[in-house]
Amino acid sequence: MISDNRPTRRAVESALARELTTRGGRGVAGYTVLTDAQARDEQNAATVLDDAGVDAVLTMRVVSESQVTSTTPGTWHEVHSYRRWGSFWFPVWDSVYEPGITRTDTVVQVETLIYAMDSRKLIWAGLSETTNPGEADDFVRELASEIDKAISKSGLMR
């Protein structure tokens, strides 16, 4: 996870490693192999990852985060009611107002790239969007599921 926020990076990388392992791979959180300084130096990172026997590297980064506000207008409803015995002969029509709702959602786009370590080439890329991401584990589980489907569909992995 490309992020200057160390706790976020660790949480996402740990969740992603668990998710990859659950799906049949051998996921390893990047922070357990590379220091922050090594991760920022391409040559050094490649050497460390080669020495660790890494076949592929999956990177993720947030490319945009925005707030989207939507409003549902209020509405009036006519209600037919019977206020007393016998009023079914003389019904009363009441009006009930249901107030509108204003809601603000957070929309996050995440770029995911997979590189083959033997060729150092990009072998898969995807852009995903999620609304109101929650905890890192839940977010990564949902994202990993979508990535898994897309990669399987592409024929890259089975």
Structure in words:
The protein has four helices and five strands, in the order αααβββββα. It has 158 residues and is of the alpha+beta class.
What does the secondary structure layout of this molecule look like, with pairings?
Blueprint: H1 6-22, H2 36-39, H3 42-51, E1 56-72, E2 75-81, E3 92-98, E4 101-116, E5 121-131, H4 136-154
Helix pairs in contact: 1-4
Low-confidence stretches: none
Number of strands: 5
Overall form: elongated
Approximate strand percentage = 35-45%
Strand order of the largest sheet: 1-4-5
| Strand and helix order | HHHEEEEEH
Q: Compute the gyration radius: what is it?
A: 26 Å
**What is the share of helical residues?**
25-40%
Largest sheet: 3 strands, antiparallel
Number of helices: 4
Q: How far do the termini sit from each other?
A: 24 Å
Task: Specify the structural class.
Answer: alpha+beta
- Average pLDDT taken over every residue: 85
List keywords for this structure.
37% strand; single chain; 4 helices; alpha+beta; 158 residues; 3-stranded antiparallel beta sheet; 5 strands; elongated
Brief digest:
With 158 residues, the chain is of the alpha+beta class.
